[in-house]
Amino acid sequence: MTETRTRTLTLISRAYCHLCHEMEAALQPLLTEYGAMLEVLDADADPALARYDERVPVLLSGKTEICHYFLDEAALRAELAGENGQRRLRG
User: Residue 65: pLDDT above 80?
Assistant: First the structure.
């Protein structure tokens, strides 16, 4: 039997950030396509997230930053497909 694991991405966000809302909306079709889940964390609610400060939104896969400010669809697709190439950060 093959074990299927659902990939969970993390979006570091703020409630009042329009870029955060735009990235979350842009992620939805890709999450559906790849069967991934999204955990949204409020950068202002957790002192441990203070390091992201003005870089939000930040999209993470585990501890790996995929992109910040704007969705880098190519980098996200490469991450979700399991490719091990260099990621281009946009921002």
Answer: yes
* Nearest partner of 88 among 36, 51, 73, 39, judged by Cα: 73
- Spatial neighbors of 3 by CB under 8 A, at least 6 apart, are none
Q: What angle do CA 14, 47, 31 make, to 5 degrees?
A: 45
Domains, the chain: 8-72 (3.40.30.10)
Say whether 90 sits in a helix, a strand or coil.
coil
**Taking the CB of residue 10, how many other CB atoms lie within 10 A of it?**
19
Query: Do residues 54 and 11 touch, judged by C-beta distance below 8 A?
Result: no
Q: Which tens digits make up the pLDDT trace of 9-28?
A: 999 999 999 999 999 999 99
Distance CA 2, CA 53 (A): 40
Q: What percent of the chain has pLDDT over 90?
A: 77
